[in-house]
Specification:
The structure holds 2 protein chains of 2 kinds.
Chain A lengths: L1 H14 L3 H11 L4 H6 L9 H34 L16 H8 L2 H31 L7 H13 L3 H10 L6 H8 L14 H10 L3 H12 L3 H9 L4 H29 L3 H6 L14 H11 L3 H29 L8
Helix pairs in contact in A: 6-10, 6-11, 6-13, 6-15, 7-11, 11-13, 13-16, 15-16
Chain B lengths: L1 H33 L8 E7 L6 H15 L3 E7 L2 H13 L6 E5 L3 H6 L7 H4 L11 H6 L1 E2 L2 E2 L2 E5 L2 E6 H6 L11 H11 L1 E3 L2 E4 L11 H7 L7 E2 L2 E2 L4 H17 L1 H9 L16 E5 L2 H8 L5 E4 L12 E2 L2 E5 L7 H11 L2 H11 L2 E2 L2 H8 L6 H13 L3 E2 L11 H12 L5 H20 L1
Parallel strand pairs in B: 1-2, 1-3, 14-17
Antiparallel strand pairs in B: 3-15, 4-5, 6-15, 6-16, 7-12, 7-13, 8-9, 10-11
Helix pairs in contact in B: 2-14, 9-10, 14-15, 15-16, 17-18
Classes of the chains: A mainly alpha, B alpha+beta.
């Protein structure tokens, strides 16, 4: 609508074509003038302008709607039904009620292992990456010469992604030849076996995640630059020190971004899969299943033993967990997130 | 008026896009239909394998070519699919009702595909042949049957042997023609073969899990060749397996984590293989490891022996795997597909595969022929004969249909034992319970 109006305005000014006047006249007549309606020959000519615009709007979003219904909603509803069956793609899809769900909670020990591993990962990575990103953004918001170069350097790891990075980290984390343990040895620390020691596999992955903190940093940096300088000036005049300025000016003003970061990284954290799949031998879940994350366990059920029904049920439980946590987040958010322009 | 035209144009273009997409689909479908036959009227059999490497691909394609030239009814079209894709692609194509006619698949999971209706029952074709199943090793044939009916035909297999360095044996004062026969001898020899410079090891005589005979394999070797599950009976925490895993762990304790990790970090392929580079004096690996020795370890003076047995009374149990040829359920030309499988698993093709790849094959006669083949060097014949003999004591680990993921209950416990976090008895008791639960749940 906005766009359309702009275009109309443009047409008006450039061609001196009295569309706006015409349109207003039309509005007055409310489309009941038989002269005008018979003149129109287009597809939706019998509709009023408003309806016509609505229909055109829907046509524009149609590709997305078709995509959503066919490729997202369809499969989602299918998986909801499949979660109550023993579907295995080829031979059977019998309704078995809540069996899959009760099996998850009662007889599958790996379900709890995988849920615990995932929770552990989320509990550590979400606060650490958030705090890390804020800290980095604060450092990179100083007026030091050559800051652009630093910003680029710290952002660069976020550009790289995927399997190549995991392979790189597998080399960095290699117990005796890896760069990390080599560096630790300079300080006389005998580094752990990282990906081979069940005590250290998850910490290794969490450290690896910290590497990509530059992506969040960028968001914070943008919002830090949006904090009005005048606030700092007046606070300084009132005798506030650096800590006070941060605590009472900077922090409240960037809470919306912190909130956004926490919500998205929480959801992303629960989806951890690739790291474990790539960095453990044949995607098995690492030593003593210490890297068997929820999605990896689900994937193994779906694509290794083709128990699609059970995997679908697992997917819905994960959806439910994430949904509940996000709702809690949104509720809690109201208490601590500060919106400069008010809540609405 | 202008607007009306625009929306009409938009609608038309959408319509056109959709119709182009739809006709595109129908065109490719009709192409598929016509590719069922060659121009001269031969039935096309789609054959999927994951053999795309520069060594294997020419060999399988030569076999296909020979088959195509041997008759004029069937034309086999070989398609290579990467290892990571082939099973999911197979499954998706079965679900879509348009699978290949012949596919090479894993031997240990044939019964799953039989049960889940992903592979075709081949019994009616096999019955027409005389003594068809007797051409294959019984252990392999067992693995392709489900409820006494065959759903695949074994193609190749492998087996693990002990490679030992004869020069190192002489150096340590051991008889190079007497490889260790029991665990006790193995340990004795290994200690003699260890070479130390001060506190640092320069050579390790033997470390059980290097190579391709893992803790799980030793557990079965030490338990009279009994699998983790035999005929619905869960045999995880048996005395033999507990003892075997404690024994494997004791090697790590004797050599120390640091030595093990340091050695392991220097391992690589080809010349950097620990046995070829002389870092270890004895090494358990698949028979095909010989090709690496042949190509990259010309100066290694080695011998081959069966895997040492637990004691004098026990057999030299070894482990193997393998692949089968099967017809996916819903294939268009099962009869022609079986004709090709017959050729693929017949003496001629199997001998060719065996000698060119130095791979163990499923056909007994072909195995014997390959061991005498002029294609192999004297040394090659010696190793191949040992490998063929070893099939007698080689166990497969078919995954039971009632416990598809039992290994994910056992492996973490084995990890815990190897890391010295729990003792073998306790860990295997836990695994026994977990596996019993699955079996009970799936068989009730």
């Amino acid at each position: 609508m906005n766009q359309a109006e702009k275009m109309l305005k443009k047409a008006e000014t450039t061609h001196d074509f009295p569309i706006k006047a015409k349109r207003e006249k039309k509005k007055e007549e409310k489309g009941i003038n038989p002269n005008i309606s018979t003149k129109k020959t287009g597809l939706f000519s019998s509709f009023s302008l408003k309806n016509r615009e609505n229909i055109q709007g829907y046509i524009f979003v149609l590709p997305w709607i078709i995509g959503f219904v066919v490729f997202t909603m369809g499969p989602m509803l299918f998986s909801l039904y499949a979660s109550f069956t023993n579907y295995n793609i080829t031979s059977h899809m019998d309704f078995i009620g809540l069996d899959n769900y009760s099996r998850m909670f009662n007889t599958d020990p790996l379900f709890w292992t995988s849920l615990w591993n995932t929770l552990y990962f989320v509990i550590w990575t979400v606060p650490m990456t958030t705090a890390g990103a804020v800290l980095l953004a604060l450092l990179l918001n100083q007026g030091v010469p050559g800051m652009r170069i630093f910003r680029t350097i710290y952002y660069l790891p976020a550009v790289l992604s995927g399997v190549a990075v995991y392979f790189l980290w597998m080399q960095l984390l290699s117990p005796s030849t890896g760069l990390i343990n080599t560096a630790l040895a300079w300080f006389g620390i005998d580094g752990p076996a990282w990906l081979f020691d069940p005590e250290w596999t998850k910490p290794a992955l969490i450290i690896m995640k910290m590497w990509g903190v530059g992506g969040g940093m960028l968001l914070y940096l943008a919002s830090l630059q949006g904090v009005p300088k005048a606030l700092y000036e007046s606070a300084t005049l009132d005798g506030a020190n650096a800590y006070h300025r941060f605590r009472h000016i900077t922090l409240p003003l960037i809470t919306p971004v912190i909130f956004f970061d926490i919500v998205t990284s929480l959801i992303g954290g629960f989806q951890i899969f690739q790291e474990a799949y790539v960095m453990t031998e044949s995607g098995s879940g690492g030593p003593m299943n210490s890297l068997l994350f929820y999605n990896l366990h689900m994937w193994n059920n779906a694509f290794e033993i083709f128990d699609m029904g059970y995997a679908s049920a697992m997917a819905w439980i994960l959806f439910f967990i994430v949904m509940v946590l996000t709702v809690i987040n949104l509720r809690l958010g109201k208490k601590w997130v500060h919106y400069e322009g008010g809540d609405d | 008026m202008l607007k009306g035209k625009k929306s009409f144009a938009l609608f038309m273009s959408l319509f056109l896009i959709i119709s182009v997409v739809l006709t595109g689909c129908s065109e490719s479908e009709s192409e598929n239909a016509s590719s069922d036959q060659t121009k001269d009227g031969r039935v096309v059999v789609d054959f999927w394998t994951f053999w795309g490497s520069e060594t294997r691909r020419p060999i399988i394609e030569k076999i296909v070519k020979d088959f195509n030239e041997s008759q004029d009814e069937i034309f086999v079209k070989h398609t290579y699919l990467p290892w990571g894709d082939i099973w999911t692609k197979n499954l998706a194509s079965i679900a879509a009702g348009n699978p290949a006619d012949v596919i090479i698949n894993d031997i240990n999971t044939v019964s799953h595909r039989a049960k889940n209706e992903q592979a075709m029952n081949l019994t009616k074709y096999i019955e027409k042949e005389d003594n068809f199943k007797d051409s294959f090793y019984p252990e392999l044939w067992n693995a392709v049957t489900y409820k006494d009916e065959a759903y695949a035909v074994p193609f190749n297999t492998d087996t693990r042997l002990l490679f030992y360095n004869k020069d190192a044996f002489k150096e340590a004062g051991l008889d190079p023609d007497k490889p260790p026969k029991t665990w006790k001898e193995l340990e004795e020899y290994a200690k003699k073969l260890d070479k130390k410079n001060g506190d640092r090891y320069e050579r390790i005589g033997f470390y059980p899990v290097w190579g391709s005979f893992g803790p799980g394999s030793w557990a079965i070797n030490g338990d009279q060749g009994r699998n983790w599950i035999e005929d619905k009976e869960v045999l995880v925490n048996t005395e033999g397996k507990v003892e075997a895993l404690s024994w494997v762990r004791s090697w790590r304790e004797r050599l120390g984590d640091n030595t093990i990790n340091e050695f392991k970090s220097q391992f690589g392929n080809k010349q950097a293989n620990p046995f070829i580079s002389g870092k270890v004096a004895m090494y358990a690996d698949v028979a095909t490891f010989y090709t690496q020795l042949r190509d990259y370890g010309k100066d290694v003076n080695f011998g081959v022996a069966p895997i040492p047995a637990k004691d004098e009374e026990s057999k030299h149990w070894s482990m193997g795997g393998g692949f089968v040829a099967e017809v996916p359920k819903g294939a268009d030309h099962p009869e022609e597909a079986f004709e090709f499988i017959k050729y693929l698993t017949g003496v001629e093709a199997q001998t060719y595969w065996a000698t060119k790849n130095f791979d163990n094959v499923a056909n007994i006669e072909a195995s014997k022929k390959a061991a005498e083949s002029e294609e192999l060097s004297e040394e090659g014949k010696y190793v191949y004969q040992k490998a063929v003999d070893n099939l007698e004591v080689t166990k497969l680990t078919p995954v039971p249909v009632y416990a598809p993921d039992y290994l994910s209950m056992i492996n973490p416990q084995i990890d815990a034992i190897m890391l010295g976090q729990t003792d073998a008895k306790k860990a295997l008791d836990k695994a026994q319970k977990d596996v019993e639960n699955i079996v009970e749940k799936n068989t009730k």
